[in-house]
């Protein structure tokens, strides 16, 4: 679990609480290292490469999500993989259950960016059409809980394939240079 430095006191109920940014989900957040210092407060990165929505409750429990936290969540890309294939109703229900069981200061949902299908290794891999369905579910759940959504797919559209690593799934430096400031801004906009 990665930790970034920074500290902003949060005055709630007459006591000083440290604002934390908690990252949950998949490799789109797990790969953040140097960028963690740009997030508000202390950063706890519980995201893991290969994680799906089925891993979220465990990640949240491991970090101990608090009411003063801003939680950044990125899932959908691995849920859409044929070898994991988390059914859409289960995916949406898991996101809703996570949001219902934790009451942080705010939620930032990072919508899955999609993939560069031409770069994927196998014929039976993720497709953008399938990832689109997971993205819509993320957006819907975010709306239900008053969360902010970072539309990674739209942010990275001007870069196209140049935002992705050679594997066609993970983002590269160019992609993160666009994505991270948008996530930080969404975190900062939470009162």
Automatic annotation (TrEMBL):
Lineage of producing organism: Bacteria, Bacillati, Actinomycetota, Actinomycetes, Propionibacteriales
Residue ranges constituting the SGNH hydrolase-type esterase domain according to the UniProt record: 31-178
Pfam families from the UniProt entry: Lipase_GDSL_2
Species for this entry: Nocardioides zhouii
The protein, known as: SGNH hydrolase-type esterase domain-containing protein
InterPro entries: SGNH_hydro, SGNH_hydro_sf
Highest taxon of source: Bacteria
